[in-house]
């Protein structure tokens, strides 16, 4: 899905970057699922608590019947918790999972096998491409789930543009359930991206293993260390792979040079305020009709309805 040109462009840039979606090959997706179990990673538990407490309220607020689409569902654990609120109100449901990771889609299908009245459709695609391609169910209102604070990975301006693009792919009355991590002290956040077991470090460094395997690069893993940084003005965690010494890496006939301490920026994870999200609903053609927050790990579910 990502081509060598985009990868080389990022690695020639200053600072060097890689597309975040590249983190999710089969091993990356499995490592992400492991991250969600870590004591330091409060996001998943907060998201699950909010689904458990309010999925039925969200479904009731929209009325039915609903056709449910999830952008980047990963292993489908949250869909498995959410969908019973929908199936309780309608005889059959189409659930479309859109993810760049084929292995995540397989896991997602597997996670939903036990729900008899749900037809699972898997689309291996990027978010918007998949959303535009996913056939609608006639007579149903579309509900798009965007959970796990995946929106955090976009730069703030791109996040708002993304919401507008999602809105453009929907009809009036359709909805978006947007889960986002809220601001909290850096001391609570940093361990979530730099855990004691080193699972997040493995998740981040695996992108180099992937570049070696799929694009014939020759990164030496010991030369690159995982680092999570809090960027206070931008209100985001950044994940970097920092060169431990000056080195050269070859990729598709190009020589990439790294100074000692130079990094590849692999992921951003922005934090939001609840009022900022409500304002974004208005600015992107939605209305925020409900918002629920988790007090234990500040986290929000915002239900946006397309105007
Ligand atoms: C951080 S994980 C979150 C998974 C799940 N939503 C959760 O809350 O646990 C991000 C998921 O989105 C997928 N993903 C990342 N970037 C994507 C993109 N641009 N388009 C489609 N899927 C993407 C990944 O493969 C992964 O399954």
Describe the structure.
The chain is an alpha/beta fold. It folds into 2 domains: 4-26 and 187-270, no CATH class; 42-184 and 271-306, Rossmann fold. It is 36% helix and 28% strand. It contains 10 helices and 13 strands. It has helices at residues 4-12, 26-35, 42-62, 77-87, 102-111, 127-133, 156-168, 186-189, 199-215, 274-283; strands at residues 16-17, 66-71, 93-99, 118-124, 141-146, 175-181, 224-231, 236-243, 247-251, 254-258, 263-270, 286-294, 299-306. The strands form 3 sheets. The protein has a 7-stranded mixed sheet with strand order 4-3-2-5-6-13-12, sandwiched between helices. Strands 1-11-8-7 form a 4-stranded mixed sheet. Helix 2 packs antiparallel against helix 9. S-adenosylmethionine (SAM) binds next to helix 2, helix 3 and strand 3. S-adenosylmethionine is lined by residues 20-21, 24, 29, 32, 36, 44, 47, 72-74, 78, 98-101, 104, 126-127, 147-148, 150.
The chain-level mean pLDDT equals 97
Largest sheet: 7 strands, mixed
Which runs of at least 5 residues are low in confidence (pLDDT < 50)?
none
Proportion in β-strands: 25-35%
What sort of overall outline do the alpha carbons produce when their principal axes are compared?
Answer: globular
Q: What's the helix-strand series? A: HEHHEHEHEHEHEHHEEEEEHEE
**H/I helix tally:** 10
Structural class: alpha/beta
Rg (C-alpha, Å): 20 Å
Number of strands: 13
Number of domains: 2
Kindly report the spatial arrangement of strands forming the biggest sheet: 4-3-2-5-6-13-12
Question: How is the CATH topology of the largest domain named?
Answer: Rossmann fold
